[in-house]
Amino acid sequence: MTAENEVKLVKLMVSRAPRPILEVGVGTGYFAGRVGAEAGLDPSMKMLMVARMRGVELLVRGVGESMPFRSGVIGTVLIVVTLCFVDDPARVLQESFRVLRVGGNLVSCIVPRDTPWGDHYIKLGSEGHPFYSKARFLALREHEELIKASGFKITQSMGTLSYSPFEEPRLEEPSDEVKGKGFVCVKAIKGGGG
After folding, report:
1. Entry pTM
2. Which CATH number fits the domain that encloses residue 78?
């Protein structure tokens, strides 16, 4: 149910977004396949092969800090809980800005550090979890500041997961109230002159 809530929010954020959609850090294609993203970028060939089975048309091996795409060719860059795993989040956002067309959208989703969900994953990481031990979670404000510093204008923020990791999961509608939510997406636009 938790994953369904996250998918519902991501779908809403990209529902009117310009095409094509490129998911940076596509992994197994879980989100890209569910929201109809046309392209995915990931450093893992193994993950890209799974993403292909989930219907992502164009899959490219590479990293977000140095995207192998021409400037101004993508309609929307989607980043779902990837910024906390990359070497240089600011560089990934700058590259996202570069590959987007003017008027293109960035949709960047995080598990905020300053929430019960962030606390939970940080604790798992400190206990040696193979996935979360590599993560550097961002606070909501840090996330927004990185996006703005890359040249974007934020147009919308929405969140979901109002329950804690230890409560019974429940289906919920995405909300404009992001404080305390365990999964938050920010939509931003690339304006002219960029």
Report:
1. 0.97
2. 3.40.50.150
